[in-house]
Amino acid sequence: MTINLEMAAAELLVVRFAALALEQYEAMEYDLAYSFEGDEAKADLEMQRINRLYWELKAIEDELKRRTGDQRRVLVELLRHPNEHVRLKAATALLAVAPEAARRELERIAAPRIGPQAGAAGMLLASIDRGDFIPT
Amino acid sequence: MRETVAGPIVGTFLNVLEAAVWIRKFYPYIQSYLDPPKTLETLQRSALSYRRGYQVHHIVEQTAARREGFPRALIDGRANLVSIPTFRHWDVTRWYMVSNAEFGGLSPREYLKGKDWNERYRVGLFALNIFGILEP
Lengths: 136, 136
Prior knowledge:
The complex is a heterodimer of chains A (136) and B (136).
Chain A: H1 10-37, H2 40-66, H3 84-94, H4 99-110, H5 116-130
Chain B: H1 2-6, H2 8-33, H3 40-46, E1 54-58, H4 62-67, H5 72-75, E2 81-85, H6 86-97, H7 108-111, H8 117-130
Antiparallel strand pairs in B: 1-2
């Protein structure tokens, strides 16, 4: 589905953000499965999909940020999404506008220190704490 | 599925047998995934022998390091090799490949291009720590 980001209502962008994050999660699962089967070519394709989706998610984040009053805060509702990867992506996008809620969620995801989402959340928090990454 | 082919009792027996074979095959991988963090010395020492459920991991990524002209003795040196759970190895490897907000949309692998050995080693150890493989 292609949507005009500039014309879309904020609520639609939230739905689209969740859908893309879920697709990225699915690509990560496929990447893992293909890696396990030793099918490097298919795993590489999934990795390309994962990174393409990063930029599609970023485009939604940028569009919400561009709007009057910085509307990224609408992504807060995704912090209650049942999928951990969706919560990770939402929390990352919210760091500049809802830092406490975003950080709390990232800490929750990072705590088990097991799995790709926990690792990504942990690395992000560490980068913030070291001052290497300043959310804007 | 088996039931339709061989009748309910034989079908159930075959399903249980299949599950048992699956568990026998993957148990070392699942068990190793739940390993607690270890010291660097333990991880390095373990890299000297093969164990099912574990893979040898290069703290500084070998392909990128080779491409950038780091000497083989350093890349495959004992200090750079650790034995880590297979599934966690994939978590770390995948983290290196995925675009990240903290690197301005670059993957860690892209971020490390042109960096010196110490920075690569620091990031490598840091990833092992965050992913629950290396003791803090």
